[in-house]
Amino acid sequence: MTPATAPEPAGGSGGSxxxxxxxxxxxxxxxxxxxxxxxxxxxxIDAWLQDRGWLVLERAVxxxxxxxxxxxxAAIEAGLDLVITTGGTGVSPTDRTxxxxxxxxxRELPGIMEELRRRGAASTPLAVLSRGHAGIxxxxxxxxxxxxxxxxxxxxxxxxxxxxxxLLDQVAGLDHDTRxxxxxxxxxxxxxxxxxxxxxxxxxxxx
Length: 207
What we know:
Elements: E1 22-28, H1 30-33, H2 42-51, E2 55-56, E3 60-62, H3 66-77, E4 82-86, H4 97-101, E5 107-108, H5 110-121, E6 134-137, E7 141-146, H6 150-171
Parallel strand pairs: 1-2, 1-3, 1-4, 4-7
Antiparallel strand pairs: 5-6, 6-7
């Protein structure tokens, strides 16, 4: 999958600042990474971001455990605005995404995950077992752990739809008069590197 280049903002003049935002999706699934199951959640998140004009880097599909942390660290090091993981947030022995995420966060955003679990519980009581984290890494990259089920991902995107723009404005220290447009090329200094996480296409199940 090639990163999608978002459309340029309309109009080349006007005094307002324009910030272009970048994101990457990391799929935490041993079965997806090894080709056992089709990746069903990563494409949903990619499409959601692209529809909103984001510049979305190639999706990383990695086995559970330390490779998730490596992919996250690479994306954070690259200075991306947003990293969304999917999968590995449950309680099975291989579900280690929360443990790989938490050490990388400077500040947590527990309310996001509380709302995700609340919405999910309206459909299934198992939603309360999700252990994902949300927070800010290196003072600029928002990291969100979403479940590995398509329903959990849609619940999570529903939460983000209401808050994501304002959250990123606040993280960047921008006031309400600054114009933010998702999706163009990021500042060169912040985004010169690209995440070196393993990139794989392949099947997986709702983890």
